Amino acid sequence: MKTAPFDYVRADSVADALAALGSADDARVLAGGQSLLPVMALRLATPELLVDISRCPELRTYRREDGVLTVGAAVPVRTLELDPAVGGAHPLLVRTLRLVAHPEIRARGTLCGSLAHADPAAELPALLLATDGEVEVAGPDGPRRVAAADLFTGPFGTALGEGELVVSARLPLPAPAARWAVDEVSRRPGDFALAGVVCGLELDGAGRCSSARVVLFGVAGTPVRAAGAEQLLLGERVTGAVLDAAAAAAFDGVEVVGDEVHASADYRRRAGRALVRRALAAVAEDRS
Amino acid sequence: MTAARYVGQRVRRSEDPALLAGRGRFVDDVTEPRQAEVAFVRSPIASGRILRIDTSAAAALPGVLAAFTAADLAPYCPGWRGLLNWPGMVAGEQTALATGVVRHVGEPVVLVVAGSRAEAEDAAELVVVDYEELPAVLDPVAALDPDSPLVHEDLGTNLCFTSPFGSGDVDDAFARADTVVEVAVQTGRHTAVALEMRGVLASYDRDEHTLTVRVSTQAPQMLQTLYARLLGLPENAVRVVTEHVGGAFGMKAFVYPDEVAVVTASLLVGRPLKWTQDRYESLQSDTQARDERVTAALAVDAGGRVLGLRSEVVSDAGAYSMYPRGCVTEGVQVATIMPGPYRVPAYASSLRVVFTNKTPLAVYRAVGHPPAILVMELLMDEAARALGLTADEIRRRNLLAPADLPYTSPTGNVYDSGSHLESLERALALLGDDVGDRRRDAERRGRLLGVGFSSFVELSAPGAMFYGAKGAPITAHDQVEVTVQPDGSVTVLLGTPGQGQGLHTTAAQVVADALGVRLDDVRVVSGDTRVVPHGSGVWASRSAVVSVGAAHAAATEVRRRLLVLAAHLFEADPDDVELVDGVVGVRGVPASRTGVAEVAAVAYWGTHRLPADVEVGLGAVGSYSGPPYTFNNGTHVAVVEVERATGLVRVVDYAVVEDCGVLVNPDIVDGQIRGGVAQGLGGALLEHVVLDPIGQPQTSTLLDYLLPTAVDVPDIRIEHIETPAPTTTLGTKGVGEAGTAGAPAAIHCAVNDALAREGARVWRQPIRPEDVLAALTAER
User: What pLDDT band is residue A176 in, cutting at 50, 70 and 90?
Assistant: First the structure.
């Protein structure tokens, strides 16, 4: 289990990194390495060049500004998890992070790395989609922003172009009126989800749902919005019957993918509906 | 012998400091000068003919020293068959590298040698092997169809072994029964997943004509013999060294083709060769286990008393019968252990062991016990439900009571002692009487709570008949050499290696007590066949009986000689000399007291003071074989919560009552039990080698082959009953596998107890959330 030969460049700046990425046909960005290095060890990935951004000073910072938490591409998620200021501003992020693998892995793995890796069973892409986040991208054609809804194109696939690099993730902080929950079912704590949900509700003064967001992960090729559930919630009082209906509709139009090792599509759908029901109830009760 | 001062105490393990600090010496920690490294090209298909192998591009890569195929190694190392003289057993030939045919994914085909492992892997990628893919035999039942493709063409059958077991009039028992319950159970294919993967460092000295093999194995002397035989070397030219071993569990008790290939190649290359297995290789080439399909029926009378038992066992042996233990032991134990600790007047079992195109199945911690115990305990629970009895009551009515002992099981196993009934009552007490409250609390949280019992006996420390009589070079005895050095310190050379189970500590406790010295004065050495006396290795929970017996014998003899020597110096009768805590003296004469060191010094440097009839030196080799076996017994109780919404099972409480006779070191026993329960939990809920419909492994990383982690295993409460074995030196019985033996049944019975409240059950392990959810929905 040794990697195929590759070249390695340690970038000191984003400019360095972009130059290096442009210098090889098959260059990959190395941040925490928690996903990339195992697949390289199995020779399932054989990049010609690794561009290590983990020590770029400009990527090692995170800040809260104008209702947005911006997290640099070299920030390990454990740093965010342990920062009380982050926990205060974005409790959903911290709750989500605690579902990601184990502390050792979180100590190296990065938020942006997880987004760029785009594992369909991962929690953080779902969080980004659920909260209307986006990523800032640097590349040969200059910087741009890609919204979560446009970023994830398939299993391990993103809208990033040749030579582009995610430099930060922008996570809008939850509105004070919103209540959020994240939940997943996995064989062991820390495993990738067999089914997962990030959901949020805002209720108006009359107790009716003014905003609903339900995002599923671990069930399809990308994190996916449960539009059927969202529509049934909007404008309604969140009674048990409404939550039942929303959960039942959560997988309408979702192309669920199963496998023979961990769980079938049928299981993911059934357990997923139960999770949606439970997560929505948690959100609704939180409000009351 | 003096009073036990250390035996029975929770003495801290001498093994731990080095291991906990990361200073263990495993095979991969050792580097020889001029060492080169090996990588293998392995079969990517489950079944096929090798049409052509082209190693030229690989051999041309810089840094590559050699690329060997079966044809290159065959002149130096013949093939072998894992054949034991079970009546009618057949086994196909196995060679160091696949010869003409590949029979499972992961079978080694080409061995590449290069300066580094990375270079060797680069070269391995350039090896071209053309295969004619053949239909794979994957279902052991379909494999018995006359039209099935054959795993080994020359055998003419896929049936490796078949045999009936049991005694008594079973037909009559079932005819008389008030109630008959039946189950069809399948256990998952496991593998050991040792923390230290297999590895070899082989060096051939061309001047001394000696071969030294550092290898991660359980049985160094066995490998010494077999390497010598395969390579045509005298045994005194083969040295096998095994220092720390990071887990083995039966999986490292074999001659592996890849290891033999490395050893053979080291002779041809003329440089020390190292191969360290990686996890991908481990999950495809380490022996597997537990893949058993069992149908069984239990006949009981109106009072729930067992009248008879029937079982049919199909054991999926995989592609080869691994040498020398073979692939039959697991199936035989499933069939013969099944009656367990119960009075079973009549039993009939049939066993079929079948070859398939899978990684070979062999022995694994608690060999055969987990499926056997699982089936019997599931039957007990089904009978209890049919009769309206509780799970504990039906067991109470059938478990062996003290008056029943000694008891001969219907398969001929003799239980000479034990606490079968008492262990159940103690387990019930440990469980407590608040199960109803716990059920209601779980229900409020959307969970079904279940309680499961597992009462069992476990065959441990088997004797000479077990393998030796079957023709395998596996001894039942151990030798231990104990020497008091001139300064009074004590050296213990163990024939069987201590590999982390705590044998160095245990042996030191026994020797210190038997000899009458302080524990700190005893140093234990093992694992180098050039240094230690003979031994059989670490398997079948034998060390606490056999190694301990040998250590005791050696220490007792040394003590006798030391007392003779001291008596001469004191001019006293040896019977009047005493030795306590390293101090020798004439009983009742305090002024005579002197240290062991002073006496020992005379044995070496003061021999001019001794008459001719006093032996010089203070060392002795003790040998011990033990009885045919010891049976430990116990009862486990598991409490699980099944989440209705997701089918997830969590083990929330676990208690063990274990009786392994006299405890040498309760901490070590507790550790064995805890680790064993964790391993059994893995089998019940998580671990499974999954193959796709053409035999491709789907679980070749630890992302997919799921092991229990610390968060999956609850705190385990342990109580001991000490019913001494009447047949062993110190009254000990083996215990190393008991946790693994009992846990899968207790957990499975608990899950079914929870599901039964909804009219549901599950019958396969691992119990996946998917199966639980399907069962809950299907039967509602």
Answer: confident
Residue of B198, B770, B776 to mutate, interface with A, max A Cβ within 10 Å: B770
What residue in A sits closest to B277 (Cα-Cα)? A1
pLDDT at B3: 64
Task: Tell me how crowded residue B279 is: count the other CB atoms within 10 A of its CB.
Answer: 16
CATH class of A179-287: alpha beta
C-alpha distances in Å from residue B108, one per residue of A174, B217, B377: 56, 19, 40
Full set of structural domains in chain B with CATH: 16-22+477-624 (3.30.365.10), 31-134+195-248+252-285 (3.90.1170.50), 368-461+631-778 (3.30.365.10)
Any idea of the CA torsion for B270, B274, B280, B284, to the nearest 10 degrees? 60
Angstrom CA distances, B452 to A280, B239, B754, stand at 34, 48, 9
Residue B549 near residue B543 (C-beta atoms within 8 A): no
Matching residue, tokens 């003329």: B270
Give residues with Cβ within 8 angstroms of B380, minimum separation 6.
Answer: B298, B342, B391, B394, B395, B398
Contact B704 A185 (CB under 8 A): no
Reported CATH class of domain A57-172 = alpha beta
Q: Chain A residues with CB-CB distance to B under 8 A?
A: 1-5, 38, 42-43, 185, 187-192, 194, 259-264, 267, 270-271, 274-275, 277-278
Q: Which residue of A has its CA nearest to B276?
A: A1
- Say if CB A126 and CB A215 are below 8 A apart: yes
Q: What is the pLDDT of residue A287?
A: 45
Spans in chain B with pLDDT lower than 50 = 1, 780
CA of B707: which chain A residue's CA is closest? A188
**pLDDT on residue B471:** 84
Which residues in chain A are closer than 8 Å to B770, comparing Cβ atoms?
Answer: 263-264, 267
State how far the Cα of B566 lies from the Cα of B766, in Å rounded to an integer. 62
pLDDT of amino acid B2: 53
B279 interface with A at CB cutoff 8 Å: yes
* Residue among B766, B739, B762 at smallest CA distance from B635: B739
**Cβ contact, residue pair B704, A262, below 8 Å:** yes
Contact at 8 Å (CB) between B741 and B458?
A: yes
Which candidate in A98, A243, A244, A262 is best for mutational testing of the B interface (most B CBs within 10 A)?
Answer: A262
What residue ranges in chain A does DSSP mark as E strands? 7-10, 27-30, 49-52, 62-65, 68-72, 134-138, 144-147, 152-154, 157-158, 165-172, 178-185, 195-203, 209-217, 224-225
Yes or no, beta carbons of A42 and B698 under 8 Å apart: no
Instruction: Report residue B499 as tokens.
Output: 């590999």
Q: Please state the pTM of the whole predicted model.
A: 0.97
What is the distance between the terminal CA atoms of chain A, rounded to a whole angstrom?
54
User: Is there a contact between B704 and A278 if contact means CB atoms under 8 Å apart?
Assistant: no
Cα of B529 to nearest chain A Cα, Å: 31
Q: Strand, helix or coil at B33?
A: coil
Q: Per-domain residue ranges for chain A?
A: 7-52, 57-172, 179-287
Residue B408, strand partner residues: B414
Burial class (CB in 10 A: 0-12, 13-18, 19+), B756: middle
Q: Is B690 on the interface with A (CB under 8 A)?
A: yes
Read off the pLDDT of residues A72-120 as tens digits, 9 standing for 90 and up.
999 999 999 999 999 999 999 999 999 999 999 999 999 999 999 999 9
Nearest to B337 by CA among B469, B168, B460, B426: B460
List C-alpha distances in Å: B516 to A98, B3, B572, B579: 55, 9, 19, 6
Domain covering A7-52, topology: 3.30.43
Give chain B positions within 8 Å (CB) of A275: 645-646
pLDDT score, position B1: 46
Tokens of B754: 């929870």
CA distance A147 to chain B (A): 30
